[in-house]
Amino acid sequence: EPEEQETYLSLYEDERVMQYLPKWTRDDHIRVFKESLVRQLPGSINGRWGLFNKADGDFIGMCLLRLFDDGSDSIELGYALRHAYWGKGVAVEMAQTLLDTMLAIQPDARFVAVTEFGNIPSQRVLEKVGMKRSGNYVRKGIDLALFIRD
Is the pTM of this model over 0.90? Predict the structure, then answer.
């Protein structure tokens, strides 16, 4: 929601979170947040969602699905969680839920994800939801580890 902008932006103020994400400016994050407020049509694969703790409403992070930028019809899974939620199984639960939901809509969907090479915990999350390492992918001049789930 529009009033959650500062909550969303707080995720990107933590250097531990940002070590594995593109080095965007605050204005870049604001632009992405505002673009995310546009409601997608039912069944659309494009979306960015906030994650909140059911028990206390605490902001956990965000997740996204979008068309992969390689020109294929692959769907890219992405996420960023606040450091307080790392290592608690939240990322695996979120990723599995997104994949299952998308497969219910598009049973033949092919999923991809990319991570920085050093982001071993995120790579483990992807493996736990059935994605396999499939070489590297270069995005904006940066080599990334590529994961695929057919």
Answer: no
